[in-house]
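Question (not urgent): is this output format expected?
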Amino acid sequence: GLLFDLDTGQVLWRRRPTARRRIASLTKMMTALVVDRRLRMRQRVRVTREALRTTGSAVGLMKRGMRLPVRTLLYGLLLPSGNDAARVLAQGAAHGSIPRFVRAMNDEAARLGLRCSHFATPSGLEDRGNYSCAGDLAALARAVLRRPRLARIVGTRSKILPFPIKGHKLYLYNHNPLLLQGYRGTTGVKTGYTDAAGACFVATATRGPVKLGAVVLGSPDIERQARKLLDAGFAAEF
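Got this back:
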């Protein structure tokens, strides 16, 4: 775990910050960062049969051949943690090739100076070869929040978007428990879970001039532990 200052990156509390851990859907922070660098929000990408071959959390309702805006897919990636959205975006940002997109994820990790991270999937659904550490995830969260479009998405509790289905609306809800419980000042970022990784959470919040982030990996209670760390930070107990 880790508690850190969002502006400076200063670490306020740490527990095994460089221990490599499986990170489940926290992976999608890197997916979003690469997509935001490569694609425009209004650009449309095509849903392929290969992109829909996934399990776990999903936006759903996608059909082969649909052409969907990047903006819609990013909300689907970061709010309900859609594995289908991750694969559609990966193909759209890498000329149809998910392996090529994964290489771009690792190139971005190197550019950011992440020292204990390796990505093998845009979704985080598969754990083999996909890992990071609390220190790297703090740096990744800071990079995501520096991108205004991504910061706006990860701070959104729910969203209704146009979608080519009956009713023409897509309803999306964020998995972030601090947003859902109304923790004051919550700004993001991402939850994750697989059997191998356990429950994971990168939580950020702002109160006045103080901006903090907490990383908890393999947690028995992500909401309680993240809240406890942030509370202590805002109370200047570190």
